[in-house]
């Protein structure tokens, strides 16, 4: 009976920790409901495996180590839609399941380590941390051989370029794909610059179009 209460306490701690990670930190910031079942199922499943292997191996040892290695080796993140910050949440759910699933680890010690992990994730993924730094993939309908001209074009469209990598150049279709890290201008500044550029060219339109999937991250 004592072992059952001990396991229930660890399970309650695990559910509380992963619930805070998923519903209090991840979902309010990223709004991807489809990953919530993945995080919860992965965490609870790993907790169950750790608890079962510990029970079989008693104090852990070889059975626990080999079992965990087998479980973790089959986990793959194959979806291209999963971003780097979401991978961090995946690993956090794994670690929480491991910490809370080890019965021989004291409950207070597991709670303290879980709190540290949650605090780090909360701060590291906070929207106020370097708030205007962004990353995006841009397709331009012009090929700039001069880096200064490319920088000016990116600045006119996005903000202050911090770093960029040319991913693709197509001379047949006269386009280039650029992976850009940039800092957003304050609200209204970019609009004013775009309007001034259009007025200067006398066309009222930009010389190219920007398309592509935007992936924001802190840089």
UniProtKB/TrEMBL annotation:
Residues 200-219 are annotated as: Disordered. The keyword Hydrolase does not apply. The chain crosses the membrane at residues 6-26, 35-53, 59-75, 108-125. Keywords: Membrane, Transmembrane, Transmembrane helix. Residues 202-213 have a biased composition (Low complexity). InterPro entries: DUF4956. The lineage of its organism: Bacteria, Bacillati, Actinomycetota, Actinomycetes, Kitasatosporales. This is DUF4956 domain-containing protein. It comes from the Bacteria.
